[in-house]
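Notebook p. 47: complex prediction with iron/sulfur cluster.
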Amino acid sequence: MRCSGCEAPAVVDQPYRSAHLCEHHFRASVEERVRREMHRQIPRFGHGTIAVALSGGKDSSVALALTHRYFGRRPTVRVIALSVDEGIATYRPATLAAAERLTRAIGVEHRVVRASEEIRTTVDTTAAGLPGTVPCSFCGVWRRRLLNRAALDCGADALVVGFNLDDLAQTVLMNLVHGDLDRLVRMAPHRVRQPGLVPRIAPLAAVPEREVYLYARLAGLPFDHGECPHADRAARNLFREIVWQLEESQPGTRQALLRTHARLVDRWLRTEGEGAPGRCRVCGAPSAHPVCRACEFLAAAGTHPLAPEAS
Ligand code: SF4
Ligand SMILES: [Zn+2]
Ligand SMILES: [Zn+2]
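Predicted complex, structure tokens below:
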């Protein structure tokens, strides 16, 4: 198969746009899609701090490398990588080592936030103590909280997350199926600024997961291939399978889900306005509920360091 843009052999097919691309045109197309998303989500950003959530996996490694490529030459923009060590012994140390290799290779400051220090528990410990609960439910909310706090601490104006097109399409479908309009409107990339929350942007939003993987390989980025031992219990797995099957039979489904999401948010903002969630009465963080889920899970785990007001 030849490239749609030149005569070189193709390294990837893109059924959703009936194209095949060689390595040169493929890498250029990923970089261009990321550049456009960056510009769309934080237009004319030329001064300040961009934090990048870096797990050490392929998605966040590509997000960091391309954020650095995009902003690296601007002396007025500081890029900093933030990692969370949730305490998953058979998985996280290897990903953190990969994150360290990448940040050293490209010369980006790297900070690691540890759940064992910040919330005095780990995902492994809590998973053992709450065997009926899917670990991703507390792991995800704690990680978001620790990342937001770390981003606030370093004065970040935006927090880059490595969500790719597949991730975002799955999240849209999950929120639609659950009828959770509030989450649908407030999911990343953030269109609504929420007090106390560093806006999360998703520059890989237009790049499918397998293209992110291929880009990471072709670019020679160090990333970890391991899988979390708790991943097979994630609720998202069903939606991953459904979106994948839909995309196989109807190429372009993922982009259609994201367009649907954008239109729903437009309409919501026109009729409902931006509004603002309340604050968690325990920790004071933005929350749609009187007590945020991070605090709920901390209470269930028997640790409550985010709760000065309640003690
Ligand atoms: S798979 Fe679940 S438990 Fe593992 S790191 Fe991801 S969110 Fe956390
Ligand atoms: Zn080509
Ligand atoms: Zn709280």
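Notes: The pocket of zinc ion (ligand 2) is lined by residues 3, 5-6, 8, 21-22, 24-25 (CB under 6 Å). The first helix runs from residue 23 to 41.
Next step: compare against the earlier run before touching the bench.
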